[in-house]
Structure formats: structure tokens, C-alpha cells
Amino acid sequence: MPRVRQPMLSDFILLVALMFVVFTLGQALVEYLALAGEAIRYPYPLEYGEGPMLDQVMRLVHGEAIYPAALMLPPYRVTYDPPLFHLVQTPFISAGSPAFTFGRAASLISALASVVFLTLIAHRLTDDWMASLVGGFLLLAFPHVAFWSLFSRADTLALALSLAGLYVVLRWSQHWLGLAIATALFVLAIYTRLNFVLAGPATATLWLASQRRRREALGLLAGVAGVSLAIFLALNLVTAGGFSQHVITARLIGFSLFPVIGQFINLFVHAAFVIIGGILFLVLERTTEPTRSWHFALIYPTGAALAGLTAGLPDGDVNSVYELVAAVCLLTAATIAWIGRNPWLRVVALAVVALQLTDLRDWTREDYWPVVVGKMQMQREVAQLAEMVQRAEGDVLADEFNGLLPLNGRRIYIQPAEFMQLHQAGLWSDALLVEAIRRRAFPVIALYEPMGGTAQIVRRWTPRVRQAIYANYEQTGRLAETLIYTPRQ
Fold first, then answer.
1. Which of 32, 62, 106, 216 has the fewest CB atoms within 10 Å, measured from its CB?
2. Domain that holds residue 476
3. Please, where are the H alpha helices in 199-239?
4. How many domains does the chain have?
5. Which pLDDT score, from 0 to 100, does residue 3 have?
6. CA-wise closest residue to 384 among 443, 437, 446
7. Same domain, 116 and 33
8. Tens digits of per-residue pLDDT, 10-61?
9. Are residues 149 and 98 part of one domain?
10. How far apart (Å, rounded) are the C-alpha atoms in residues 341 and 344?
11. Which of 235, 231, 338, 342 is closest to 277 using CA atoms?
12. Whole-structure pTM over 0.90, yes or no?
């Protein structure tokens, strides 16, 4: 008879450690899903960028251009993102009324899909389901994804498409159809959010080359580059140059290295345990028996770190390091799988992950989710602000709550944060807007200024615009941390 292995103390401790990690990940998932559900049901904008996104979708629904070549004339609107995320929402909004529901639901589904594809990628590389599931679900513990995916923004869909492309490369790249599907997924990711042009395709290409499959690597690279370029030229031709002006020229102005450094430092400080563990894996694995995951786990974080430089662009935020967060999760899975033959070392690895999860959840709860919850708690005042916007006869100027305009069938007159950047770069003059304010052409101006927060008015409106508002308008109310200005009598 074969000898039956008796349970050991290390097995029991390993089970306890695993149960604790599963419990913590499960708790993070439940909290995320609960808040995401509330966000989907919340009828008003939760952050500044949701307004322009809905406005752009509404313009597509009505057959209007979202990449106009002329930026100097009103209405002053700029579209940073390629059109795929807009097109995903268009059928649903066409069949109903303007709402943030569809974009937020798409972000939630994309976040869950990203977890699935990240898990499948890790398992394909490690053959270790436990390590792969821990690495995959770890993605939702990071506030970058748990926070940004609550909004109607394009980044989470782009992440899901890029991870899907990487999985297809790992699973089916030996067939031409697999390469074609991977090419399509990477192109779709790029035309959802331009930030995803580098890490995914570069990782897939370099990984194939590391496996001595240069023909497939060149085919994939040529396919992604060729199709992306063809679509770019077509869109630029159709929009008379407007597409490149919006998604490249307008986005690349005002780059600053300080936000990049801030995002990288924040990520390292709050995820130091798993990042250091991943670095140790990349260094020490070369001294032991090679693993299948090493090349991939080295290439993807490198490309993701380079893609993270987009945090320095005007629209950069935690979304800019999406792929770097995914790479850290993949590294964590690879590290756990690598040390898996030693049960005591796996216990240590799971304990480290559990400690990291505690820090990540505290970080999310304290620094990110209060922003969303605070907006939801102001619903009554936001509803009053929405009624004011609806009753106004004429164009309304707004910043944080500009999403109330397309929500009520109006168009955004100006995206102040974007045009502040264009003004500073010398690509836009505020003269016509200042003149309109002096004529008191706007019945209502709503400027967001939270108590104790960053001076958003200064960040979003040029000095001349602010001076014109103060000289020709008077503050007549305050709703949802927004100062309401109406024309002086």
C-alpha cells in the first residue's frame, strides 16, 4: 500500500494563514461590491471627470462630434480618451435617458473581469491556484482600482482588455487565431485609454521573444502597431485633425514629474511588503531552479512602471498606475508559487500578504472612499443644485458638478480644468469667456470649493476668469460645498 502522508503542524498553520488571507480578501471584496452598488445607484456625478464623459456620450448619441478641431471657440470641450468607452455606453443611453449608471456598471464589470484575467494569467504561469487566486483578488484591495473603478471612467475597461490580451497570448499564441484575438484586445485597450499602448503589447512581445518565438512576437507587434496606426489615421482624417489634437496634443501638455514620484512613493509605502517580496523573487529565483513565470514577472512590471509616467499628465491620478498595481499582484502570485514547495515559507508569505492587506484596506478606507461617501451624503443638496441648473435660462458654468448639465439635457459650456492647462500652455485664450462673463451671459455659475480642501477654484479657473466672476457676479448660496454665483443687479 502507498504510504499516506500524515498531516503536519506546518499544514495546520498554513491552513490557518490561508483562511485569514481568504477572510481578509473576502471582506475587501464585499466592501468593494457594496460601495460599487451604491455608486451605480447614485444619480449624480461622483467626481469631476464623469461630467465630460457623459457629455461626450450624449453628443455621440445625437450624432455630434466629440473631437472638434477648433478648441478656441465656445463651447470649450476637450476629449482626452479614444472613443471605445463612450461607444460602450451609447446604446444604453440611446434607449433611455442620460445617466452615470451604465458607465459605472461597465467599470465594475471590468474590475471583476480584471481579477479573473489576472488570476488566469498567474495560473498559466505558475500552475498554482492558491497563489493565483490570492494575487488576482489582491487587485481589489488596492485603492487605485477599488476607488477609480467606482466612476464612469475608461481606465478599468482598458485594464480588463489589456489583461485579456495577455492571457490570450499565454494561452493560445501558438495559433494564428490566438494572435489575432490578442492583437484585437490590445488595440481595443489602446482605443479605450491611450495609457495602455505600452505595457500590455510590450510584455506580450518581449515574453514571446524570451520563449524563442520571434516570429509570433514580430507578428503580434506588427499587428498591434499596424492596426492602431490605421485606426488613428482614419479617426484623424474623419475629424480633420481633431482626434490627435484632443488625445495627444491636449493631453501631453503640462507634464510634471512630481505627481509621478508621489504615486510611486505612495504605492511603495503602502505595498512595501509585497513589492519587496516580488523583488526578492526576481533576484533570488535566478539562483534556484528557473520558473516559467520569471520572464513575464520581470517584463510586465517594467513596462507598467514606464506606463506609470502618465501620472504626470494633466488627467493623471491613481488610474495612471493601474497596470503597475496589476503587475505587483502578479509578482505576489509568482512569489507565493515559487516558495510553495516549503510549507513554512508559504506560511510566512501568506502572513506577509495578510499584513499588507490590512494596510491596503486602511489606506482605501481612510484616504479614498470618504471622498465617494461624502459626495453621496450630499445628495439632497446636489439635488437642489440640479434643480437650479435645470431652471436656469441659458448656459451654466460649473466645475465639479458639471455632470449635472448633460444629466439635465444640457451641454457643458467649458471644462475648466482642461482649458486651464491649455491656457497655461499658450494653446487657448480665455478672452471670449471673460467677455461673456462681463456681459453676465450665464444665469448661474457654480464653483466647487470644499471646506479645508484644495483650492479648486484656483486650480481650475484662470485668474482673469475669476476676477471677472467676482466683479460681475455675487455669491447667493452654497450647496454641496459649491459656491453659487448669480449676476449682480
1. 62
2. 378-487
3. 199-210, 214-238
4. 2
5. 53
6. 446
7. yes
8. 667 777 777 888 888 888 899 999 999 999 999 999 999 999 999 999 999 9
9. yes
10. 9
11. 338
12. yes
